[in-house]
Amino acid sequence: MTRSLVIAVDGPSGSGKSSVSREVARRLGARYLDTGAMYRAATLWFLQHDVDVHDPDQVRLSVGIPLLEMDTDPQQPSIRLDGVDVGSRIREADVTAAVSYVSAVPELRARLVELQRTAVADAIGTGFGIVVEGRDIGRVVLPDADVKIFLTADVDVRAERRHREEVERGSAVDAAGAMSSITDRDAIDTTRAASPLLKAEDAVVIDATELGIEDVVGLILELADARDLRH
Q1: Per-residue pLDDT reduced to its tens digit, 132-162
Q2: Are 113 and 175 in contact (CB under 8 A)?
């Protein structure tokens, strides 16, 4: 297939974007970028440096400071904050609770969008396609992506998946807490002024409520194959 194919995967929290996107990238021999991890890493930096994440002005003043580096190998994706791998740390409860507030700051989004587009350009420049997942990829970051997916699922299913993930990480979050986290994140993501979570007009909606990862991966690969044949 065309190695420069760009696939954008958007959707709400808990829809399975990360697992699906990594597997699609692996099977296509493409790169993989988790933009949500970038927002989480920035959030961690603010928390570590006593920036009030609920105060957009404080966040705005520090937007240019954190040094973020991403490895886009789908087999071993990583993100480093000021040279330190924070892939596990950014999934902890304090970051999860704060990331929506930080990611709503337009200046931060602008800076990270620039980094995301650079990562895509680097992948294409070295002969690879790339799968990019997030919440504003098809509409804002990569409006010209070859394939656009909006992956969703019923909120009950997404909350159950999130609770299972938290249990696997050793978190004490219960089912009610996972549901609250999902619904709060949905509310903030869909109503923020800067790049709210919305489906791109030309995106294909995949409802994963009753689908497994393999099912969703298969559907996306079919769309990628069809798009590749039109190149």
Answers
A1: 999 999 999 999 999 999 999 999 999 888 8
A2: no
Spans of all domains in the chain: 6-222
Under 8 Å between Cβ of 27 and 74: no
Taking CA atoms, 191 is separated from 100, 188, 201, in Å, by 11, 5, 18
**Amino acid occupying residue 52:** D
Distance CA 119, CA 170 (A): 32
pLDDT value at position 1? 46
| Residues, the chain | 231
The whole-model pTM stands at 0.91
CA 231 to chain centre: 27
Residue 66's φ and ψ, nearest 5 degrees, are -60, 140
Q: Does domain 6-222 have CATH number 3.40.50.300?
A: yes
Sign of CA dihedral 51, 15, 27, 138: negative
